[in-house]
Amino acid sequence: MTIRVHELAKELKISTMALKKHLTDLGVNVKSHMSLVEDEVADKIRLKYKEQIDAEKRAERDRKRLIEMRQAAKAQKSAQEAETIKAEEPVPPVAEPVKEVPKKEEPKPVKEPEKKTPIPVKEKPAEGKPKEKPHKPVPEKPKAVPKPKPEVIPPKTAAPAKPEPRKKQEPSAPSIKPIPTPPSVEIKKEEKKFGKAKISHEELGEKSKHKKAIISSTKKAKQKLIETIEIDEAEISRNIKKTLQKSSKRKKYHREAQYVEDRSNEIVIREFTSVSELAKIMNVSPSDIISKFFMMGQLVTMNQRLDRDSLEMICDEFKVDYRFEDEYGMDIIDKEREQYNNVKEEPRPPVVTIMGHVDHGKTSILDYIRNTNVVAGESGNITQHIGAYQIEINKHKITFLDTPGHEAFTAMRARGANVTDIAVIVISATEGVKAQTREAIDHAKAAGVSIILAINKVDLPEANVDKVIAQLMEIGVYPEQYGGDIPWCRTSVVTGEGILNLIELILLTAEILELKAKRDVPASAVVIEAGMDARMGPFATILMQEGTLHKGDIVVCGAVHGRIRKMENERGAELKVLYPSDVARVYGLSDTPKAGDILNQVDSEKTARNISTERQQIRLEREKYQNKSSLQNIFARIKEEQINTLNIILKTDTDGSAEALADSFQKLSNEEVSVNIIHKSVGGISEADVSLAAASDAIIIGFHVRPSHQARKLAEEEGVQIKLYQVIYDAIDDLQNALEGMLKPEYEEQVIGSAIVKQVFKIKKVGTIAGCQVDKGVIQANCKVRLYRNDVLVTEDTISSLKHYADDVKEVRAGSECGLTLANFSDIKENDVLEAYIVNEVNKKL
Ligand SMILES: Nc1nc2c(ncn2[C@@H]2O[C@H](COP(=O)(O)OP(=O)(O)OP(=O)(O)O)[C@@H](O)[C@H]2O)c(=O)[nH]1
C-alpha cells in the first residue's frame, strides 16, 4: 500500500515541503506532492510525529503544572503574609487563639508598625464575600486564628451546600483569608439607581494605600519566608523557561521542518522574498536559483517573489538552514532598539479584559466602573466609544479592554498578540455557569492570563452564589476558599456591591504579577481597533506595550505609516504622551491599519515609509498567492477525487459535545460521501479555524460557540461557511441534508403519455414524419420516447419536432393528433407505439 505525499502531509497537518524534508532524511526521495510513499515509510514518519506531538503535549502539561505550582507558591505566600498581618493587629486581646499560633504572639510588638490602618481588612469579610462559609468549624470564637488556606478547603461537594452569604455578619467570621480578599468598602446604598452608586475617591484611596501597605510591609515582615519561597520560585522559573524553550523549539521544527539546534548558519528570510534578494541572502548567483527551479519544472524570473513553499524548497535544495522573519522590517526596528537594551523595566498598569456569557453583565460592570467617578479626576460624558479605556485609583491605573468579550480576546491571540494580563470572568448569580463562561475560562487559561471571577447580579432575589461556585468547581475552577486560588467576588451594578472588591482584586493580582515594561525606549503598541474618521482620517486605537509615544512621533503600523498628529482618550481629551499599558485613539496614519497590527515608533519618515510600502506589497502578494493556491487546490481535487468528502471543522463548548457530534457525523458517512473531521476542539471559532477551513475546503460547525468578529470577516472574505447550532439534532439533520446534496443524484423516469403512429410521411430535407394519435397522457416537445413495435422495444430517442397541424406546439394531449419527428430514428412504421417519458432527478437519502 502507498499514500501520496500530500495526503500524508495533510494527515500529519504539516506542509508537503516539511514532509519532503523528513522523507529525504529517511533517504526517500520524492519528486512532488503527488509522489507515492510506501506504507512502511509513512508509518515511520507517523511514529516520529506522534512521538514529537506527545513530547509537545508533555511539555505543555509540565508548563501548566509549573505555572500552577508557581501560583500556589504565590498564594501560599499571600496567605502567610496575611497571617502575619492578622497576627500583628493590635485588636485581638480576647482572641484566645487556638493551637498552632506560631507567630501570633511575637508579632504584636514592633515588627511592622505601619500596619495600623488595616482594620478594614477585617470588615471586608463581613461584606459581600461568602467566605463565612468555610468557617463553620470555628464557631463563635471571634478573632479566631487565621487559618492557612488549605484548611479552609471544604470538601468539594460540601461547599456549595453551605451558606447564605449575603447576610452581613458581625465580626464573627474572622478566619477569612484576608489578603486575597481586599478590604471592601460598604457602599452606600442610598444611590440605588442603576449604575450610579458612586465610589468615593477617598474610599478608594484609603483602600489602595492600605493594600499597598499590606503588601510592602508583609514583604519585609516575611523576609525569611519569602526567601525560601523565592528559591523555589527561581527554580520553578528556570524549569518553566526550559520547558518553554523545549516546546517552542519543537514547534518550530514541526512547522518549518527545520533543525533548530544549530543556528549559526541560519539565514533569515521573509515570505515573498524575490529571487534576486534570496540569492543575495544565500550568497549564490540568481541564475543558480533560477536553474534549480527550472530543474524542478518551474520557471521563475529574477524579480519574481517566492511563496513560502517555494522558499522552503529552494533552501532545502541548497541545504541552507533558514528561518522566516515574522514581519518585514522587524530587523530594522530591532536594530534601532538595540541601543536601549540596558534600559530598565518599570512597573506598568494591568490590562484587563472582561469576559463571560451573554447578558451576565460584562458591559454593565465596565460601564459602572467607567461611569463612577473612578477615572482620575475626570468626569463628563464619553465622547466616543473606543476599544479600551483606563481608570485611575489613587495613582493605580487599570486598563480595560472594552471588547465584545472573548471574541476580540481570542482574535488578538490568534494574531499572536497576547495583550491581556487579567481576565475578569463575569458569571450571573442567577443563571450560573453557561457555555460562554466555560469558553471564556478556557480561553483565559489557554492564554495563561490570571483569572478573577465576578459573580454578578447578587442583588436579585434568585441569586445563588453557592450554586455558581458549585458549578465552577464541577468544571475544575476552584475559587479561593473552595480549594483553589482563583480570586473572586460578588458584584452587583445595581447596589454597587463588590465593584470595589473587584477593582481591588485586579490591583492585587497585578501587584502579584509584577507587570513591567520599558518606558524610555521607542514606542511599540498593538492596534485594538481601527477605522476612518470623516474629519480626521484614519485612526487606530492602540494599547501601548512598551516605550513612550508622543505627538509628532513617526511610526510604522502594520502596512501603514505616519506621524502621530493627535492622541486622545475616550473622552476626547487630548493626550500628550503615552506609556506602557496606556490606551488612546491616534490620528495621523497614512491609511487604516488592521486590528492586531503592531505599531512601532521609528527614527525617520523614510524608514517608516519603506517598511510600510514593502509590507503592503507583501500582503498583496500573499493575497494573490492565496487566491491562486485555492484555485490550484480545486483543480487538484477535481483530478484526484473520486469520492465526495465533506470536510468539517468542529468547534464546541465542551469536549463531551465535540465527541458526541463527531461520532454522529462520522456515522453519516457511506461509500459515496464521507465526512472528514479535519479538526475538532473546544472554544470559539477563531481566524485560525477559518484559515484552516479555507485551506482545506471545509465548513465550520459551531456548537454553542460563535465566531470572533475577525473570524466572521475572514470567513466572508474566504467564502468559508460557518454553521452555528444550539441543538445537537439540528446539526445532525443539517449535515445529513448537506450530504444528501453531495450524493450523486438518482434519476427517476416518469411516463407521461403514449401515441400510436397512424401514418408515416417521408419528406425530403425534413425526414420521416409520424402522424400520430395521442391515446394517453401527453406528448411533449423534446421529451424522450421509446418506440415499440409489436410490444418490442425498437429504439429510444428524443422528439425533435412536434406539430399540431402546421403549428409547432409544446405538447399534445390525449385525444388529439400530432405530427412528430425523432432526432435519430427515421424508420418509423404505422402502428408503432411511442411511449413518452421524462427523467426527474431525485435526491438520494442517506
Ligand atoms: N439586577 C441586576 N441586573 C444586572 C446586573 N448587571 C447587569 N444587569 C442587567 O443584565 C442585563 C445584561 O447586562 P449586560 O451588561 O448587557 O450584559 P453583557 O454580559 O454585557 O451582555 P452582552 O454584551 O450581550 O454579552 C442588562 O439588562 C443589565 O441591566 C446586576 O448586577 N444586577
From TrEMBL:
Keywords assigned: Cytoplasm, GTP-binding, Initiation factor, Nucleotide-binding, Protein biosynthesis
Amino acids binding GTP: 356-363, 402-406, 456-459
Main localization category: cytoplasm
Localization annotation: Cytoplasm
Molecular function in Gene Ontology: GTP binding; GTPase activity; translation initiation factor activity
Pfam families (UniProt xref): EF-G_D2, GTP_EFTU, IF-2, IF2_N
Comp. bias intervals (Basic and acidic residues): 97-143
SUPFAM superfamilies for the chain: Initiation factor IF2/eIF5b, domain 3 (SSF52156), P-loop containing nucleoside triphosphate hydrolases (SSF52540), Translation proteins (SSF50447)
GO cellular component: cytoplasm
Keyword Protein biosynthesis: yes
Region (G-domain): 350-498
Record flagged with keyword Cytoplasm: yes
Region ranges (Disordered): 67-183
Residues covered by the Tr-type G domain: 347-514
Family assignment from sequence similarity: Belongs to the TRAFAC class translation factor GTPase superfamily. Classic translation factor GTPase family. IF-2 subfamily.
Matches recorded under HAMAP family: IF_2_B
Record protein name field: Translation initiation factor IF-2
Encoding gene per record: infB
